[in-house]
Known about the structure:
alpha+beta; 3-stranded antiparallel sheet; 3 strands; 35% helix
Amino acid sequence: TEDVSIVTVVGAGMRHTVGVSGKVFSQLGDHGVNVLAIAQGSSEVSISLVVDSRDTEIAVKALHELIIK
């Protein structure tokens, strides 16, 4: 697939925090960003999301808004 971006959410506290993935996906959905694929490392400190390249800036800003509240 062409014209996609990988956005990764990283945080040591994610490993033991219930609902992080749900909040991430809800935030992106609320901003009209469609997630094409996901991956989570075995360390559980990051979630990588593949999005259409046109949505990259929106996704990053939406996730930043979620984290910095």
